[in-house]
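agent> step 3/5: call structure_predict on target 'Probable RNA 2'-phosphotransferase' (Streptomyces cellulosae).
agent> reason: downstream docking stage needs a structural representation; sequence fetched in step 2, passing through unchanged.
tool.input:
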Amino acid sequence: MDEQRTVKVSKYLSKHLRHQPERIGLTLDEGGWVEIDTLIAAAAAHGFRFTRAELDHVVAANDKRRFAIDGTRIRASQGHSIDVDLGLAPATPPPYLYHGTVTRFLDAIRTEGLRAMNRHDVHLSPDRETATRVGARRGRPVVLSVDAGAMHRDGHLFHVSANGVWLTKAVPPEYLRFPERH
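tool.output (status=ok):
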């Protein structure tokens, strides 16, 4: 399976497992799961065909492990804009987590902190390298440090998804460390 096809299938899965399952007639269960055969059939009925082998390749090859398979079911690991309960237990974060962004968002972040926007949670990375890759999707990346230890001590809840992404409802600006301005 070539890279272009892998990306195309991955984007299709993200759209329909995270944001718009109803667009192809899918109903996810409360945890965001759907039967793989049902997903493949729904996609084909709406003009986008892929095989089980292609799906397995996308799941296995995705460096961010965006999708999880449990037996005959699949779901997105996080990033939903629809109502799902991923069933993640609260977790104690490491002292610092990281968030990749770009310069044009810094003024708003300085004022409002990090907000979930159209998702359920703010996504945080366990290391600078991952946050850099996340920020680079929108341009030249800027990596912010999040004082997750202080947030946790102050009562903010954290969860960690199956693919290692840390989730929290919001990060107030006082817990953020911005890089030096040049």
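agent> step 4/5: record observation. The chain has two domains: 3-76, 97-177.
agent> proceeding.
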